[in-house]
Design brief:
Helices cover 40% and strands 14% of the residues. The protein is α+β, with helices and mostly antiparallel strands. The chain folds into three domains: 153 residues, no CATH class; 147 residues, no CATH class; 125 residues, no CATH class. Helix 5 packs parallel to helix 8 and helix 9 crosses helix 10.
């Protein structure tokens, strides 16, 4: 097989597999049709040279990659789901298939699946993924990455030739199997499980493993539980800021969906905001709005407190919530940095940047302008006034809001003036992923097997990525 020197297998999970995972067999599918392969990220781990037959063999039939995991592993974990503790959790329709080192960063990256068959944790489910669900996750991960968020990448989506029956969408519906490229699969719920079971030795081993791989900056410390908790908190504060400045609603921020690396993954029924609405929810079953857009930072902090409790047996039985006291400051700093990045502006210092965030929040909240439209119209700050003046939504800004926004932008300079002439910004509309667009993309696939809207949207998203790329 044409693997390049960039292929660097490193199945570190085998050090822990005996107490956090179960060996499983992948499902056998009647027909494999590649619908999406991310060559850019495949190149990071040396898989870009695979032909389609080899791609399907390894990422559809899950034939082991050389010198990697000999058998897929379904990971075990517990978690709080909508604040209720659930012990009956684990990878129910996916598994860890391989671990590889990224050529550019040296990070350990996981190939994890979704829709690859039943496991001991399927809880009566069929272990499958709808093709529509796979399409949605490709789109969401792509746009979050384009905005600069730390997120899993969808390396592969393959249609499997099966038909599925689902209660929450028209059935029968087409099936797919997806492979994520993720910076780890260790969740807050992974620690909760071992803590709940009273496995102090296993808990310590998992802590050392996760700290070494996902927070190597900690090095040798005499307070690893506390230092690790703070590192996870800083990473997840940044992730929450990425969601908020992208108008992204994850949907289901249970503790089994929070990765201790800080990377976004396991999205619920996600949405991107049409207009700013703190009460906006993505999941129809989130009846109390627990995971509404405006409550996401608080939900992350709640999950971090559960991690503190889970680590307590390693630290004299006391949850180290003192290590979480800086969360608000870390989150605020990340919001400032990420909003400036989205607007393509240089910092003017914390005080001015914080004022810009406050005014932006007020403009979004007090006017019916599209969330992404405000960013698009004003990327480059006052240097973009011509673009903003021509915007079809300028009339949606109240005069006092527009005046306050212009005052807040005074003195800010474009971080990369040459990018203001990009083809994306020369267009007349921002790249969005509103529910109507996602449904139209799926309708074309479902009704006519027409993937053109899907590929067109990915091309638009890539233009956004290039605009923001370092």
């Amino acid at each position: 097989m044409p693997l390049t020197a960039r292929y660097r297998p490193d199945p570190q999970i085998l050090q822990l597999a005996d107490f956090i995972a179960d060996e499983v067999e992948p499902a056998r599918f009647p027909k494999l049709t590649i619908r999406h392969r991310d060559q850019r990220h495949a190149a990071r781990v040396g898989l870009d040279g695979l032909n389609d037959e080899e791609w399907a063999a390894h990422l559809g039939r899950f034939e082991p990659l050389p010198q990697n995991l000999p058998t897929p592993l379904a990971l075990r974990y517990h978690g709080h789901q909508f604040r209720h503790y659930n012990r009956d959790l684990g990878d129910g329709r996916g598994f860890l298939f391989a671990q590889l080192r990224a050529e550019d960063t040296g990070q350990l990256l996981d190939l994890g699946t979704k829709g690859s068959g039943e496991t001991p944790w399927s809880r009566g489910g069929d272990g499958r993924l709808t093709l529509q669900g796979g399409v949605r996750e490709v789109l969401a991960a792509s746009l979050l990455e384009a905005h600069g968020g730390e997120t899993c990448k969808i390396l592969s989506l393959i249609e499997t030739g099966e038909s599925l029956v689902r209660y929450d969408e028209p059935s029968p519906t087409r099936a797919g199997v997806m492979v994520r490229l993720s910076y780890g699969h260790i969740r807050i719920g992974s620690f909760q499980r071992l803590s709940s079971l009273g496995d102090r030795v296993g808990l310590g081993r998992l802590l050392e493993h996760a700290a070494r791989l996902y927070h190597p900056q900690l090095g040798d410390t005499n307070d690893l539980p506390g230092a690790f908790l703070e590192a996870v908190a800083r990473a997840l504060a940044d992730t929450a800021a990425a969601w908020m400045t992208s108008g992204f609603v994850h949907g289901v921020l249970n503790t089994d969906n929070l990765n201790v690396s800080g990377e976004s993954f396991d999205y619920g029924p996600w949405r991107f905001l049409p207009q700013c609405d703190p009460a906006f929810t993505a999941a129809y079953f989130d009846e109390t709005g627990l995971y509404a857009y405006g409550r996401q930072p608080g939900a992350v902090l709640w999950g971090l407190r559960r991690l503190a409790e889970a680590l307590a047996p390693l630290d004299g039985g006391r949850p180290r919530e003192d290590r979480l006291s800086g969360f608000s400051a870390w989150y605020g700093a990340a919001v400032r940095r990420r909003l400036l990045r989205r607007l393509g502006l240089r910092s003017l210092g914390d005080a001015r940047d914080a004022a810009l965030v406050r005014v932006a929040s007020a403009v979004w909240s007090d006017n019916p302008i599209g969330f992404e439209r405000l960013v698009f119209d004003w990327t480059g700050g006052l240097a973009a006034e011509g673009r903003a003046a021509a915007s079809p939504e300028r009339r949606l800004l109240r005069p006092e809001s527009l005046a306050a926004w212009r005052r807040a932008l005074e003195g800010y300079e474009p971080a990369a003036p040459e990018r203001l002439a990009s083809a994306y910004l020369a267009g007349d509309r921002p790249c969005t992923l509103l529910i109507e667009e996602v449904e139209a993309i799926w309708a074309a696939i479902h009704n006519a097997d027409d993937w053109s809207l899907f590929h067109q949207k990915l091309a638009e998203i890539d233009a956004v990525r290039r605009l923001y790329a370092p």
